[in-house]
Amino acid sequence: MTAIPFFDLSQEHRQLKAELDAAYDGILERSEFVLGESVKRFEEAFASYIGTRYAVGVSSGLDALELALRAAGIGAGDEVLVPANTFVATALAVSGVGAVPVFVDCDEKRCLLDLESAKKAISPMTKAVIPVHLYGQPVEMQPLIGWCCEHNLQIIEDAAQAHGARVNGQSCGSLGRFGCFSFYPSKNLGALGDAGIITLNDKADYDRLCLLRNYGSVVKYRHEIVGFNKRLDGLQAAFLSVKLPHLKSWNESRVALARRYDERLSGVGDLRLLETKAGHESIYHLYVIRTQKCRALQEFLRENQVATAIHYPVPIHRQPAYQNLSMRAVALPVAERDAERLLSLPMYPQMPPQHVDRVADLIGEFFCR
Ligand SMILES: *Cc1c(COP(=O)(O)O)cnc(C)c1O
Can you tell me the distance from the alpha carbon of 5 to that of 293, in angstroms, rounded to the nearest whole number? Predict the structure, then answer.
């Protein structure tokens, strides 16, 4: 019985080895290690892929979120609405700029930020919302944009799991004031280390982000504002430029594998599959199912050499890091229940379809025992 990994980056890197080597050689030759031409080239290519006028390469997804919040003028005394079920970085970015994350519940059908819950969490201090396109699924943006417009709230998209996900033909990351992406190695588009980018349309925002990421400076030794060192490495940009042309087909493979899981798993046991909305194109960063027997099923799959994961086992408002926050209490029943019933199944573009079948067969067996 062959083990089925949760994901496997080695095939992608073997396939691209010659090009990645050439990218490395090019950077060594030019000695352009931080920012520079290769960063500029990648920023332009990524902005064009997402459909925004600008993109600003930074050092990680967390830094993308934090700089976007700063560029939006969010800071001490402000509140930002954040879904309770997301990777912790979404909330850490808010804390990082001195603002307070206010957690909002998720919807039952797709585990995404629930607008009705957001409406209950708003206060006079609320300045922004961070919709997270979790697992690669686009958040329903139109009603959110309307509501944010009414209340004068900024929208900063956390698209760290959604490189190429689209809603009604528009890419995630092009729908708010800022789109924030991570290129952590295991994301749909991954660097060979930490990296991130911010997508945006406004020239003044672009200029400000270029200052913020580079010591408040675009002209050497002239510092316009108090900035940071949160720049993208030339090497990572060069690697990302090798990978970007493959993203579309990698995402298509994920979608095909997800369809296969959907077909094989619908109606099995008490499983509830995430709903796909018309006009929404998920890129399945993760393939997530819901079951009351989540932990037992995970154990059964593990015994049968299938690796799975839980995203995320503890909602952020239950994390030790956030126990001292004097948060206004908004009930988060769905996020709390989800932490006990979500299970992510193996998913990566090069995954053999037979592995999907084997995982589905095992899940069927588990529920018929
Ligand atoms: C990965 C991720 C981040 C953070 O990205 P890093 O590059 O690891 O800092 C933020 N938000 C979400 C939803 C993520 O999945």
Answer: 21
